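Dear Dr. H.,

I hope your travels went smoothly. While you were away I took the liberty of generating a structure for the chain from your last submission, since the lab meeting agenda had it listed for discussion. I wanted you to have the full record in hand beforehand rather than looking at slides cold. The sequence, exactly as received, is reproduced here:
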Amino acid sequence: MQRSADRATPAFSLALFALMLGCILWLTALGAGLYGRLAASRSANDQVRATLGYLVTRVRSSDAAGAVRVEEGPEGDMLILADRESGYETRIYLSDGWLVEQLCAADAATDPAAAQPVAQAESFSAQWACSTLLRVTVDGKTADAALRSAGGGAA
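The corresponding predicted structure, in token form, is as follows:
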């Protein structure tokens, strides 16, 4: 005659197996969720860094005395990169959740409908840290553009 403890062993083993399988599935789901959040965060950070790199490059390419200015735009600061020879300027500003770039005549009005999107952004600011250092900020991340010529702003 079998004892009752011997009959409980297969049921106990099956319950233990199910518990371990549940833990493994739960840990897998937890890891996948964590990886997804990290990947999204990294992608957003890469986007902002690429945008800042683009802005710094654009500012440095317009490095001439008085060619770089910061004025008030439709939704905050507007970065103006002037080309004195052609009479045109590039305006970079925030419009409807997008950082946009508009090439127009220096005397033309700012028109967000005519601007090209650069990147999605919630916030944008440009400020002169001193006469040759422009600090641009996009979505809380900051980059500095050091100019060889004096910029449009003063410290």
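Two observations you may find useful: Residues 46-146 form one domain. Strands lie at 68-73, 76-83, 88-95, 98-105, 116-120, 124-130, 133-138, 141-146.

With kind regards,
E. W.
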